[in-house]
Amino acid sequence: MTSTISKPDARPACPLFSSGPTAKRPGFSLAQLESAALGRSHRSSDAKAKLKEAIDRTKTILGLPDGYRVAIVPASDTGAVEMCMWSMLGQRPADIFAWESFGKDWVTDAVNELKLEDCNIHTGDFGVLPAFEKARDDADIVFTWNGTTSGVRVPNADWIKPNPDRVVICDATSAVFAQDIEWEKLDIITYSWQKVLGGEAAHGMLILSPNAVARLESYKPDRALPKLFRMTNAKNKLNEALFEGATINTPSLLCTEDYLQALDWVESLGGEKALKARSDRSLEILTDWVAKTDWVEFLCADESVRSNTGITFSIADPTIAKMDAADQRAFVGRMMKRLAAEEACFDAAAYAKAPPGLRIWCGGTVEPDDVALLTPWLDWAFAEELAAL
Description:
Blueprint: H1 45-62, E1 69-74, H2 76-88, E2 94-98, H3 101-113, E3 119-123, E4 140-144, E5 168-171, E6 188-192, E7 203-208, H4 210-218, H5 253-269, H6 272-291, E8 296-298, E9 310-315, H7 318-321, H8 325-341, E10 358-361, H9 368-388
Helix pairs in contact: 1-5, 6-9, 8-9
């Protein structure tokens, strides 16, 4: 069979659609990092000033409430979530909500590692949110704001009832700088540089509310805490230095400089709302494409909770849809190989543990114009592979 779709003429200027590490901001060059404090101790005054600047500017640009603290911690978003789960959970009942791969990791921690008592697990399939209305008013909560691997986001925090006796832990790594987050409803918010800001891996951002600090200082769990998880001193008081740029272990000052430059870029656009608008525009482009394309559909059927960053798709064409999951993945893999050879698109296959299909990252560093140029290439690659069957 011969494909009837011609190869497109125009390619995306940046064909990088990976969901992490994500595309660098437009105009990025290594020359922008020459002001990094390389070769300096991260305890030196110059390096600590860089780290403190990253913390302070994060507070300002995100518009965090008064009293919320920010720290740079090891092991990316994963480390930030786990250090809070291990340090704070166990005092009260807990409700864990998961509907995609990373949220299910927090379920594993809560059930198999922490072995929390009175722990309710609420799960949803890929593309569908769990029943948030089942959240208990007196229970600690752990959830992701945006499903990086499922293409589904929490529309709001109306389901979280204020209670100063509990803590709400939110993994927001693919939502910060792209979605409206109700900070006041959350006590712990985590994210990583390599998601929406296109930074480099290994650094986690940790945001704590005054209520989270109170939990840390009033509760000492009956479990061993590795050094990388410890946020309090020998007297069980908050390690204030951590929130002033004295990191637990050695950070990359090159990556720190890249984060600072990314914040410069955010401010040049007009702030985090401008990044959200870019992601929203990319989602609009893809929504219009799906509406006129018969071989693909959104994994998340409910547009009111559809992500604007990690946007996921299933193959709707009946020839492919009737294949088993392994064959569908292989088909998409061949599409990606074809697109990569044309330098039109890299790394847009679905996450390995998610249903077979596509996942296109549309965080703020991705140009909406590039998303528009991508869709004809997806149509071409699909038609070519279908014809080759």
